[in-house]
# Entry
Amino acid sequence: MFRPFPKRSRAHRGGPGTQARFPKCRVSWPDAQISGVCRARYAWGIDSPFGRADQFEIGSREGETLSNTAPLLSLKDFRLRFRGQDACTIDRIDLEVARGEVLCVVGESGCGKSVTAMALMGLLPEGAAEIPSGTLSFEGLDYDLTRERLPADLRGGAMAMIFQEPMTSLNPVFRIGDQIAETVLRHRGGTRAEAETRALDMLRRVGLPSPEARLRSYPHQLSGGQRQRVMIAMALANDPKLLIADEPTTALDVTIQAQILELIRDLQHEAGTGTIMITHDLGVVAEIADAVAVMYGGQVVETGPVAQVFDDPQHPYTIGLMESVPRLSGAGGRLTTIDGAVPAIEAMPEGCRFRTRCAFAAPACAARPALRDVGSGHATACHFAPLEAHLRVAG
# Structure
């Protein structure tokens, strides 16, 4: 989880008329109007006032090595447009997950994280959306998402998903044991007795108290944390190669949240499962991720190994997210915020979709920036990356 950020010195605070200079553009903001993105880092120079990666307790992965072979899952040039819309909600994103790797997809609500996951699993309603482009490679097999959905046999088997709200995902009129046994029978076959034995074993593995009694319980008879453990048991019952967890801890208190994260990490480590964790909680990212992809407005704006992205964020939106995290120590005051609001999909600006909220926006931002490598697998979609090479305080 996050450690408290260090208190900024007065030298890090902008004065009246603080300016940031671009190669071909000069912009100035009064001190009171400097956005959170600007205040977070480069408005005062290259040194980051919120510290380096050692300000975060990055989850330990001792003894683990990730495969250097072909990724388990690779999504390329994925675009998605909902029916009745002209603009693409998801616009040309690429994602990769290796075997045994945890990729966290982070961003504020509405940025397209869950929609991307649902589309990957083939769970969007028929005819609700059009996919103009996108290819998915999973375990060496390629799928053209413009023409085909993921085969149903993969869903719940080789690929599984933990949904955000278990109370709306579990069937309220079937017992817990029946629901887990159904997925086992669907993908593994065997007898009903064998499926129920497997269901009981999974409830034990996820640490549910009195698992024999819980097999005969209905969802409403369990607490929120218990229902989430049932969802995890159901997702992992068939030993999937890929697990997608859509904000699995959002509705839980912090104690149960920590237990669920530890459980997912332990089970994932045992089976070597590739995991996509969807969240807007940077503390969760620091705790569990190997790699992170930051999304804004349906686009991936920054991606790379979690320690590198947290140590040296290179997109203004990523910097703004980090700076908006509450501090547990130091002087109180208002939280830093990113000015403005995410535009509606039909009102998204051309080029960089973040430019209407970015303190560093320049005419060049009217063209969409490509994800560019800034070192060791760390890539960002900003015309001025690496930022320290292009931005400085104007004298």
